[in-house]
Amino acid sequence: MNQQRIAIIGAGISGLACAAELVKSGFEVSVFDKSRGVGGRMSHRYFQEWGADHGAQYFTVKDERFSDELKKWQAAGVVEAWNGKIVSFDHGNVTDLKKETHRYVGVPTMSAPAKYLAESLNVSLLNTITELKHQKPQRGSKNKNGTWQLVSKEHGLLPQEFDHVVLAIPSPQAKVLIGEHSDQLTETCDQVVMLPCWTLMAYLKNPLNLLFDGAFVENHLFSWMARDSNKPGRSPYESWVAQASSAWSLEHIDLSQTEAEMLLLEGFKELTGVECDLYQTHLWRYSRLETPSETNFVLDTYMNMSVCGDWLRNSTVEGAWMSGHALAQRLSLMGSIDTL
């Protein structure tokens, strides 16, 4: 059994997939995240008796390895197929999509698969890692490259020492923590452009009279809208999510939340003909990778640091899972950290 200690910063699907695979291989893994819950952008926001998936809307499956993981999630009851009617929507004109796509969602919320993965892991939430401290190797130490300690905003210098650190967070956040520790990983972060997404969550007292459950919106500030209450396991109260395009979100990224809300509400009324009875908004500052790639992870073998996440591969649930899983397999195949 490997007894190397690995810290993973970020409890999204990528970080959790990495942690789960490493634990299977016998590593001692600790996951840290600044949020109240796990899942990253696989998230759901509750409002009294209604709620909405305000991050990832659904996911698809292409790779056989991820298909195997999906089967585990389905067997655990945390994922179901979403058979809602999905269309193209352009200024009131609805066009059915020709290509049949199998879409899946977490149940009862989009965060369910992440919570399932986290059940068997050592996850520390509300723990914002602000600095990585590298400790030089002691004489006679098995780890010839030294160890790592983490500094937390909430708890200061954490007592644990780690043989390897995985950064499973968006590239701008990862770059801050990498600092001067790794030119290789800093360069990787610099090469990536992440795009934002303003999101509107809306509750309606009366069902919206639109003959679809999800739509790719054309020629509008919104690029996607969905009847969240149509997804399996959701609250019956009429709730919708509308997500602005990357271009619009980038152009308006510096707006205050109040300023953005006014524009998003106007856009929603323009599309649907109705006003929201209740609403909230959220800015995903690092929502989507500008240029997808085939890179799963980047590993600095000298410093025993690595990065993974959907920002390296593509901005999908599958891409995030594949990234973390592939990194864990590489570390496991290497056998022990001191041979990296």
List its traits.
340 residues, FAD/NAD(P)-binding domain, 7-stranded mixed β-sheet, 6-stranded mixed β-sheet, 8 helices, 20 strands, disordered C terminus
What features would you describe in this structure?
There is one protein chain. With 340 residues, this protein is α/β, with parallel strands linked by helices. The chain has a single domain (5-339), classed as FAD/NAD(P)-binding domain (3-Layer(bba) Sandwich). Helix content is 26%, strand content 29%. It has eight helices and 20 strands. The chain has helices spanning 13-24, 64-75, 112-118, 171-178, 183-190, 246-251, 257-272, 317-334, and strands at 5-9, 28-32, 45-47, 50-52, 79-82, 86-90, 93-96, 103-106, 123-124, 129-135, 147-152, 156-157, 164-167, 194-203, 214-217, 222-227, 239-244, 278-289, 297-300, 305-308. A seven-stranded mixed β-sheet has the order 7-6-15-16-17-14-18. A six-stranded mixed β-sheet has the order 9-2-1-13-20-19, sandwiched between helices. A hairpin with a 4-residue loop joins strand 15 and strand 16 (222-227). Helix 1 (13-24) runs parallel beside helix 3 (112-118), helix 1 runs parallel beside helix 8 and helix 4 runs antiparallel to helix 5 (183-190). The longest helix is centred in the last third of the chain and has 18 residues, at 317-334. It starts with a strand and ends in a 6-residue tail after the last helix.
